[in-house]
Amino acid sequence: MKVTIRDRAAEAPWGYGYVQPVVVTVEIADDCPVPDCGAKRGEPRHLRQCDDGAWYSVQVWDNPCGHVDMYEAVVREAKTLAQAAYDKKQATRATESEVAL
Length: 101
Description:
Layout (H helix, E strand, L loop, with lengths): L1 E5 L16 E5 L17 E7 L2 E7 L10 H30 L1
Antiparallel strand pairs: 1-2, 3-4
């Protein structure tokens, strides 16, 4: 599922000037990432927020299983999934190159 979230780790540290929220759209699994759960995640809905005078829009969702997705964990999950997809693509290209030889 695709969700739009705030990536605080990509922003300037607190106390270093004006806060400019970094909002990203990422791809994450449809299922809860908690081990031994695997229930479907909730339906994303938009939430408009303000931080230090800067307005931005993100998505939030409530997982029916009750587990809470923290944005920091969602960013890590998205990076892991993106890296796995990239690695798979590279492996496929390498295999196709070997077959062509």
